[in-house]
Inverse folding.
């Protein structure tokens, strides 16, 4: 039985408030435990988006009542909350800036507002950026000019990882994450996935981009799922929203890479536990660990997953290695498909609730 | 009689090849002499654009035959000429990158091509960038990451000059220019100008932006006209192209600022002679100087200007100080409204012609 520290996913969408038909803090954290994660950092592009104390409190209340693993919550950077955001920093695991179009209403189009966020955001936790292509260059400039830490979400292309490599070499305070789906899927999988189910931001890239990511592992600080559940009715509907679920397949996919010697086990733990903890300045989760049956081969079936969305872009894929048990702060929290940690047992790793 | 060194304008559009009904190397360099300039650097967004040896040679042939003051010619960065551009560097005063939409077909939309230009362009002369707003941040990142010199054209807003100031403080190799029209006109002048004649890129900014530029003089390396003539028929037509003529009004406008003590005479010479020469690594024009009647007050009348376009956005404005004589390499090249230097007497400051 392989034993690893509890994994930390720095990028999940738990859809609460406002999208609980897709996922909520309970189903999402059960999916997390089933995937070997003892902590997840939840994104703010909810309904309403988490851009002020009232909306942040909505998410905190839901999480406190329902979460079955530990969590942090991101604050969203809007064009109108430059002051509020910095004041709320002690309660957030980071500031999330959406430079490019994706799911939800948050998008930073104003350069003066972006600058003001970079000027005001306190330095202890990073500014996490959805920043593709030219937008990546913009936030690398901001990090350099305003001497701030940026964490680049879901890097997906050769040119992006090249720029991040250079920025690191030049001393810019930049870290980054790559998703399993950008490491294991490419545009070539789109015909099989179908156009609606294949919708994701950043889009699936070329096989050359995928190869460039694998060749740049030393530049990649974290593997993050960007778990972004939508129902199959939505994905197969008229206007399919972008996003893949990923919490329950990430570890097995990365263990496959270890098995194929594309990645060392140390490298996996570094990117799925140690680096997320360090980058987001998370307190240690003492006595938290996971047990994995390394040789267990299983076939991904969406309907069998714990996420409320009930599907996977890896449907039908045979993966090796499956989580048997998860211990969260000394307690057995998950065993063989069953979440044992009660709702509300997950802790906010960042803060006590926002004071009323 | 005030005597100054021959002025150097690092940003003019002489419209040749392809737009000689607006201007050509002869009328444009006469306008330059009339404005006190003994050298101009010509932009590559011509028809055809100057992106390869054949098109560059077209411009060189025209300039060699017609120019009445000295000149350099920019090469345009296209998405398909990353190799050709670096090979042609010895014949160009710089590489011009159009990040944003403006007049003509050149625009750099591909991030990989932009990166390749930054990787390949030799370091001795700058990459001049039309880069507004977010695009400015992109090229500041490129300059930092690829350790290249960038020269930011026609800075027009408070936020842009703020970013350039920070980049200089952080050691990025960046210089910049501001046009007289962005220092003396704002959006508030648009009703009087009319919507067609007021079209210019970057657009006329807010009075607050104009004030921020004046308060940031120490960040501004050059005053450049961005002399961009179009005929009045075009400016008053259905789809007015963006651009103002500026060669014949720039010095008088800036002398007005000296007269009002918003600028020192040393600061004027620094930004209209010394810095353009240094930044573009131009050879000295020995025995070149201009004589100015400082007290001469004149009213701008487009029809009296030498530019073929025959209009000015400063129409009717009373300016103080007018060029009487221009000496170019020891020869009297201009006197009291008459260009005396013959066509073809202007020299290419950068190179002998591209070898056949």
């Amino acid at each position: 039985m392989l034993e690893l520290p509890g994994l930390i996913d720095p990028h999940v969408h738990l859809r609460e408030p406002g999208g609980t038909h897709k996922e909520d803090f309970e189903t999402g954290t059960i999916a997390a435990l089933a995937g070997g994660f003892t902590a997840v950092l939840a994104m703010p592009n909810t309904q309403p988006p988490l851009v002020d104390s009232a909306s942040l409190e909505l998410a905190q209340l839901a999480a406190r009542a329902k979460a079955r693993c530990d969590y942090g919550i991101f604050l969203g950077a809007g064009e109108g909350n430059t002051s509020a955001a910095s004041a709320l920093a002690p309660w957030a695991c980071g500031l999330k800036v959406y430079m490019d179009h994706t799911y939800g209403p948050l998008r930073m189009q104003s350069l003066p507002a972006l600058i003001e966020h970079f000027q005001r955001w306190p330095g202890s936790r990073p500014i996490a950026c959805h920043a593709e292509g030219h937008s990546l260059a913009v936030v690398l400039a901001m990090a350099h000019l305003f001497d701030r830490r940026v964490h680049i979400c879901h890097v997906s292309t050769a040119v992006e990882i090249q720029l991040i490599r250079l920025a690191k070499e030049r001393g810019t305070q930049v870290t980054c994450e790559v998703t399993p789906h950008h490491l294991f899927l490419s545009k070539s999988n789109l015909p099989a996935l179908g156009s609606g189910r294949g919708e994701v931001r950043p889009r699936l890239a070329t096989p050359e981009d995928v190869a460039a990511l694998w060749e740049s592992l030393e530049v990649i600080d974290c593997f993050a799922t960007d778990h972004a559940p939508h129902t199959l009715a939505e994905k197969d509907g008229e206007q399919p929203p972008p996003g893949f679920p990923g919490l329950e397949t990430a570890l097995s996919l990365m263990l496959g890479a270890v098995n194929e010697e594309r990645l060392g086990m140390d490298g996996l733990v570094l990117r799925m536990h140690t680096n997320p903890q360090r980058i987001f300045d998370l307190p240690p989760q003492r006595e938290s660990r996971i047990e994995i049956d390394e040789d267990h081969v299983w076939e991904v079936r969406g309907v069998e997953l714990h996420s409320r969305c009930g599907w996977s872009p890896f449907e039908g894929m045979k993966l090796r290695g499956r989580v048997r048990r998860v211990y969260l702060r000394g307690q057995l929290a998950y065993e063989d498909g069953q979440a044992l940690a009660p709702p509300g047992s997950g802790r906010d790793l960042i803060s006590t609730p926002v004071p009323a």
